[in-house]
Amino acid sequence: MDTKLKIIIIFSFVYLTIENLINERQKRKENIVISGDKGSIWVTITLIIIGNLLSFSIAATNIGRIYYWETFLLIGIIFTTIGLIIRIGSIMTLKDFYTYTVTKIEKHELVETGLYKRIRHPAYLGQLIVFIGISISTSNWLSIVLMIASILPGYMYRIKVEESFMVEHFGQRYLDYQKRTKRWIPGII
């Protein structure tokens, strides 16, 4: 296996470990009032794992290989960095209202500042961009397709669950927020 691919896999493992640590930290929150996750976290995590396994498995072969490693590695690093900035910025904007699962906490408020002013799910957008960047860095078009095709349905399901939960708990205020914002990309979707 190519050294660059090994480095990419190690980085991905470290990233997923950090995400898991964030999840474990959130589980210790004592101010959770109600959960409405409906298993969406496990659907999303399972599809992320499948996406990574498929992406790296095909990247380890010559099937779908694009022979411009350095260029695609650089593009992948740029995407991953942008995704991390968006994800971390989104989590920091939510502060104590950030939870890893779909839950309502005590004194929960609808956050409409930072990226949330225009996008309802910037943390998911950031994470999706991270995974796209990781797959681009493998320099394999099939790896990119397999990653996106595997993880996108998980995010779509999770957003559906989360938005239903938010409407249930914030009512008209969240419906108005939906009208003013897009799910992932301002002005598009």
- The helix/strand order is HEHHEHHH
The number of helices is 6
Low-confidence stretches: none
Mean pLDDT: 89
Radius of gyration: 17 Å
Strand order of the largest sheet: 1-2
As for the number of domains, it is: 1
Number of strands: 2
Q: Using the coordinates above, name the CATH class.
A: Mainly Alpha
CATH-scheme architecture: Up-down Bundle
Largest sheet: 2 strands, antiparallel
Quickly list its features.
single chain; 189 residues; mainly alpha; 66% helix
Structural notes for this entry:
The chain is mostly helical and 189 residues long. It has one domain (3-180): Four Helix Bundle (Hemerythrin (Met), subunit A), CATH 1.20.120.1630. 66% of the residues lie in helices and 4% in strands. It has 6 helices and 2 strands. The protein has a two-stranded antiparallel ribbon. The longest helix has 30 residues, at 141-170.
